[in-house]
């Protein structure tokens, strides 16, 4: 079948089966498939609304093309969100990653530069002094030395360059936002994922089940924010023992102060880097509480704690003890050491 046959079917508002989407995904990644044809299919899928099977199949194919990561067996967590919410919030999941690593969670964080936001995770890392030009060996060594590593998507997904050009030409979220968090080359057993579609939260947890996750939390916040927000408009699902169950949390019951999503707005990568450093230094704000909430959810997903409130308290201790800031400094130091090493070769 050609990519146009799949596009025609989707334009008729027909869903592709898992097997059909596997074939369509192979064509999307084929170098000879015209970019315009790829864009047409991605737009058609977006207009129709992607299904569990379509997202899972594309993720499976994309991950199959990722470069292998030579990690020892272990329990690794990613807390990468889908992006694409258009809310310009500061880098909550990237900040949370340092808090999680300081709480003795092995973090393999997947991320990219901005595509539909003001500051992607790779952008704010650069502003912090953490470059993204790592070899896979560097990334594994960083994890072994610091307990956390950042995988810049283009470094591990060589076929993404062409797709990135297509996505930028479309200029709005596509199914690739949905599959980004699902294609970490590390073998993940657990995950926290924020998505920009509240109506798809349970479906997304089902995608994680199909892809072999043992336990995970999926959240969509206010206005489709791809993080948990500090009001009561969050939609949650827990994947546990192959079952998907909705759950809820009360912000004030967690010892956090409710705030509108506008209070979490960020800015340029440089501005977000300042917010991140201040926060990890213990500065209290809505940003601080948002990181406690999202880190607490990740600790709960990981099984480090038995409740979200215990996760929030562990996250708070990781920041106020200085451990999270020390983790950031360790990663910056490692990143800079790699650059110095290359300069003297």
From TrEMBL:
Residues bound to Mg(2+) 1: 93, 227
Positions with a binding annotation for anthranilate 1: 81, 112
Pathway(s) of this molecule: Amino-acid biosynthesis; L-tryptophan biosynthesis; L-tryptophan from chorismate: step 2/5
Coiled-coil ranges per UniProt: none
Domain Glycosyl transferase family residue range list: 74-325
Enzyme nomenclature, EC number: 2.4.2.18
Subunit structure: Homodimer.
Name assigned to this protein: Anthranilate phosphoribosyltransferase
């Amino acid at each position: 079948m050609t990519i146009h046959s799949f596009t025609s079917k989707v334009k008729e508002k027909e869903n592709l089966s898992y097997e059909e989407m596997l074939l369509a995904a192979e064509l999307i990644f084929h170098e000879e498939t015209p970019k315009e044809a790829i864009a047409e299919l991605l737009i058609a899928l977006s207009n129709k609304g992607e299904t569990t099977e379509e997202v899972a199949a594309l993720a499976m194919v994309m991950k199959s093309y990722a470069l292998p990561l030579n990690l020892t067996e272990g329990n690794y967590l990613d807390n990468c969100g889908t992006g694409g919410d258009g809310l310009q919030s500061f880098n909550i999941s990237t900040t949370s990653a340092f808090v999680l690593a300081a709480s003795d969670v092995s973090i393999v964080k997947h991320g990219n530069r901005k595509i539909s936001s003001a500051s992607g995770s790779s952008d704010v890392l650069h502003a912090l002094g953490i470059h993204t030009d790592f070899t896979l060996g560097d990334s594994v060594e960083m994890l072994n030395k610091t307990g956390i590593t950042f995988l810049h998507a283009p470094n591990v997904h060589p076929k993404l360059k062409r797709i990135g050009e297509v996505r930028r030409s479309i200029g709005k979220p596509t199914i690739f936002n949905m599959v980004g968090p699902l294609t970490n080359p590390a073998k993940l057993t657990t995950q926290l994922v924020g998505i920009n579609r509240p109506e798809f939260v349970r479906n997304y947890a089902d995608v994680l089940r199909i892809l072999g996750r043992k336990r995970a939390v999926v959240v969509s916040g206010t206005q489709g924010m791809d993080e948990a927000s500090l009001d009561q408009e969050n939609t949650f699902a827990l994947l546990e023992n192959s079952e998907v169950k909705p759950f809820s949390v009360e912000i004030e019951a967690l010892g956090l102060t409710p705030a509108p999503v506008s209070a979490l707005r960020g800015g340029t990568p440089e501005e977000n880097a300042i917010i991140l450093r201040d926060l990890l230094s213990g500065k209290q704000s809505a940003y601080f509480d948002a990181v406690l909430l999202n880190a607490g959810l990740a600790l709960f997903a990981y099984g480090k704690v038995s409740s979200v409130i215990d996760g929030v308290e562990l996250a708070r201790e990781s920041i106020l003890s200085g451990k999270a800031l020390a983790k950031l400094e360790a990663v910056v130091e490692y990143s800079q050491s790699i650059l110095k090493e290359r300069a003297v070769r």
